[in-house]
Amino acid sequence: MRIRVAIALSVMFLSGCAMTSGPAPAAEGAKTRAEVRADLAMWKRAGMNKFYKGRHTPDIYSASYRKSYANYLELRNGPEYQEELNRLKGEEQ
To answer: Distance between CA atoms of 47 and 7, rounded to whole angstroms?
Structure first.
């Protein structure tokens, strides 16, 4: 009998917690095909694709990986990304 009461109280407590939590934060929105392709181009230009060959997980703590990833972030947040995006959007038209 005590187990049933404990289970019932747990269910009531957990359902109350679920109801009081707010909705999940909204996502940025879907990326366009051109945005995805431009991002992939920056990924490849930085040399990140060489770390993901085969089934093995790359050593994300290695100096070469971290250097390439930093380069990717610079490209992705720099004018190179926007130039590639504009080029790809021009191809779509």
So the answer is: 54
Query: In whole angstroms, how far apart are CA 85 and each of 4, 21, 43, 44, 48?
Result: 60, 38, 13, 15, 19
SS3 at position 29: coil
User: Measured on CA atoms in the order 18, 19, 21, 26, is the torsion positive or negative?
Assistant: positive
pLDDT (tens digit per residue) in 18-61: 555 556 565 678 999 999 999 999 999 999 999 998 888 999 99
Pairwise CA distance, residues 19 & 12, whole Å: 11
- Distances in whole angstroms, Cα of residue 17 to Cα of each of 5, 7, 24: 18, 15, 14
Q: Which two tokens stand for residue 66?
A: 């971290």
Give CA–CA dist 39/75, Å, rounded: 9
For 84, counting Cβ atoms within 10 Å of its Cβ (0-12 exposed, 13-18 middle, 19+ buried), the class is buried
What is the model's pTM? 0.67
